[in-house]
Amino acid sequence: MVDLRSDTVTRPTREMRRILAEAEVGDDVFGDDPTVHRLEEEVAALLGHEAALFVPSGTMSNAVAVAAHTRPGDEVLLEETAHIFQYEGGGSAALSGVQLWPIRSDTGLPDPRDVSARVRPLGDPHFPISRLLCLENTHNRAGGRVLPMDGFRSVIETARSHGLAVHLDGARLWNAAVASGRPESDYATLCDSVSVCFSKGLGAPVGSAFVGSKELVDRGRLIRKRLGGGMRQVGILAAAALHAVHHHRTRLAEDHARARRLAEGISELAGLDVKLDSVETNIVVAEVVRGTRDFWLRELRERNVWAVGFGGNGVRFVTHLDVDDAGIDLALDALRSIEPE
Ligand SMILES: Cc1ncc(COP(=O)(O)O)c(C=O)c1O
């Protein structure tokens, strides 16, 4: 079978299991875990920031970010299909007491004019305080698109000109770096904080990092503790994450090439539609044009190909460390053999 539901489904490699078994550990809540320190230092340096904090998930990393930048009652601007708005259980409202104001966009990147138009006047007690802009790169719901650097820079400059801080949900920033040929720090240093995940394309079993200035990350450490995310001998997981950062970044290009081959095959089918120019990394979103989405998902599953429903009427396929060329062949053969009504 081939599991194309998400890049989160990878199993730790044999080498990764060996490394995590041998990891040097300590109690990280006491600040004693040397492997966690190494991971945090390396990731902060890689992204061009002062400090990093190892957290259990991308969702917690974003929750820490929103809480660290805001106070209850503040307003946060973000694109309307952003992961923080769509898929984090309403955490920003529940945990930070902030109000999210989503902005529509076709590409995942908000237009600077829409950001400006939503910034509230200061000093009028009718209004919440506009505090933070959240961006996402690569953008999951936009089909893994890489935010173009010019637009990215320009929306950040606009946000800053209004006094907003900027947080980047970079769960797949590694993919954006490989696809654009730019180092991760090109994007990361433009933002006040960044969240990166080790458990997606990089293939580690668990973990993300919240990255920013030392002051912000210290505040994040308190928030992580409040959320129950302080972990003890977590160097075993940090070791897997370090291994993934060292050895699984450049190979993301293989995932991107396989996603493209899959998308090209899908584009020849009558029953599914895929916008080839939107396939820039490891995510392929196909819109159902014949049959129903449930039909496609069921027929694929019967042929040992796993995908997920996505957005309005889409089917999402994601390539990753555990998908090889034979997996793409299996998926294409299955797709070609399905005949919708
Ligand atoms: C863009 C983005 N941000 C954040 C997350 C959350 O990560 P986690 O599943 O580790 O909580 C995901 C998960 O897929 C994601 O795609």
Total count of helical runs of at least 4 residues: 14
Number of strands: 13
CA gyration radius, whole angstroms: 20 Å
Q: What quaternary form is this?
A: single chain
CATH level-4 homologous superfamily of the largest domain: Type I PLP-dependent aspartate aminotransferase-like (Major domain)
Principal-axes geometry comes out as globular
Q: In sequence order, what are the helices and strands, one letter per element?
A: EHHEHEHHEHEHEHHEEHHHEEHEEEH
Determine the structural class based on helices, strands and strand pairing: alpha/beta
CATH class bucket of the largest domain: Alpha Beta
Any ligands, ions or cofactors bound here, and which? pyridoxal-5'-phosphate
Report the major sheet: 7 strands, mixed
The low-confidence runs, each spanning 5 or more residues with pLDDT under 50, are none
User: Which topology of the largest domain does CATH recognise?
Assistant: Aspartate Aminotransferase, domain 2
Task: Give the strand order of the largest sheet, numbering strands 1, 2, ... along the chain.
Answer: 2-8-7-6-5-3-4
How far apart lie the N and C ends?
A: 25 Å
Q: How many distinct folded domains?
A: 2
Q: Based on the structure given, which CATH architecture of the largest domain is correct?
A: 3-Layer(aba) Sandwich
Mean pLDDT: 97
Assign a percent range to the helix content: 40-55%
